[in-house]
Design the sequence.
């Protein structure tokens, strides 16, 4: 039982570390967009920014989906 608790603890630490890195990545993306918006030139098309933001959001959602799946696996281990 002790080994199982260690495995669960390791999995949770791994997932928490991934979530923290993901949060940092999303914050950097937000900062990059803010910097871009502050320095955009007048000939820039807003649709290009919208497309870039959608791609970044899609990437973030995909990463979050992976983390949720890992949490699901941990819950399954705990409940066994």
Sequence:
């Amino acid at each position: 039982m002790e080994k199982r608790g260690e495995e669960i603890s390791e999995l949770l630490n791994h997932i928490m570390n991934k979530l923290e890195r993901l949060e940092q990545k999303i914050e950097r993306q937000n900062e990059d967009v803010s910097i871009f918006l502050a320095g955009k030139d007048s000939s820039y098309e807003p649709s290009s920014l919208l497309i870039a933001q959608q791609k970044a959001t899609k990437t973030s959602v995909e990463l979050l989906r992976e983390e949720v799946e890992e949490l699901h696996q941990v819950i399954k281990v705990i409940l066994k």
